Description:
7 strands; disordered C terminus; CATH 2.40.50.140; single chain; alpha+beta
Amino acid sequence: MSDIIFLSNVRLSFPHIAEPQRQTNEVTGKERISYNCELLMPADHPGFAQFMQRYGAMALAKWVEHTNTVMGMIQADRKLRCFGVGEEKVNKKTFKPYDGYAGNVYITTGRESQPQIIEANGQAIDPSNTMAYQNLTRKMYGGCRVNAAVKPWLQVNKHGNGVRCDLVALQFAGDDTAFGEGSTDASGMFGSVGGANPFAPAAPAMPGLPSFLA
């Protein structure tokens, strides 16, 4: 259990929790399913410090005398790491950091299977209870507060060396300002409509009665 890091009162971003994210590999055509999200917190959050300490300990055990070199390579390539400073996450349309990212740090976390969802009373939802799972996960919008249990791990494969993070469990911890523009209110452009619809087509004229019924 020492590998699992508890992140208290962090903000949820880009959640794919109620429904998994589906991505298709352009080369192989294979579909990848992932329940994932990003977790935002201040740089001095104790959970983030614990996460980085655990990452450093794993790296030292794996790469020994090459640790500094490998960690430097990982730090230089955002695709090889699951964490970073918020200013790295820039919206391609506005060229500014995404809502909530500036001044914070983030951890990207996910898994192929559903993470544990913890109720307000601290009990885990029965994974077979689909309705309860959906009811609670749909409350978890981008910008809300959550508690999370995550587990860092090292990537060592043909794609290179890196650090990733499993999403173990999530608990809704409270509301906060939703990220993004939200829905647009255009009601001020409209007035009340009284009487008949001026755009309704006119009723067709009734045909005259046949002469033998007149």
